Amino acid sequence: MNRGHLARAVLEATAYQTKDIVLAMNRDSGVNLTCLKVDGGMVSNDLLMQFQADTLGVPVIRPKIAETTALGAAYAAGLAIGFWSDQQELRGNWTEDHVWQPKMEPSMRNKGYKDWKMAVEKSLNWIH
């Protein structure tokens, strides 16, 4: 094993943990996710974004401005002081940078997720 293997494992774990959350949200809401809009530092990793689309089986969409948390705070302040008239005006500022379409066969998607869940289960209580 080398650094590359460890880095890939971290990326895959991130995508699988996101899948866990999406599945719980789908179950709780009764509404299935049709696409995932992403933001934050990790969205610059194209490998992760493609793997995320593959594991979820839905398109993953990255905006041109990846740090939308800070942008949201600025938008809220601007709305509060009347710089923008309403939320609709702000929606026009969002632009798509890239979309990753799922490419993985459903059987491979299911096997990878099942194998990851098994690996997590085996790691529980590994060290007492």
SSE layout:
Elements: H1 3-29, E1 36-37, H2 46-56, E2 60-63, H3 68-80, H4 87-91, E3 96-100, H5 106-123
Order of strands, widest sheet: 1-2-3
Rg of Cα set: 18 Å
Spans of at least 5 consecutive residues whose pLDDT stays below 50 are none
Q: Roughly what is the average pLDDT, rounded to an integer? A: 93
**Structural class computed from helices and strand pairing:** mainly alpha
Beta-strand share of residues: 5-15%
Order of helices and strands: HEHEHHEH
> N- to C-terminal separation?
25 Å
Largest sheet: 3 strands, mixed
The number of E-state strands comes to 3
**Could you estimate the helical fraction of the residues in percent?**
55-70%
Q: Looking at the structure, what is the overall shape?
A: elongated
Number of helices: 5
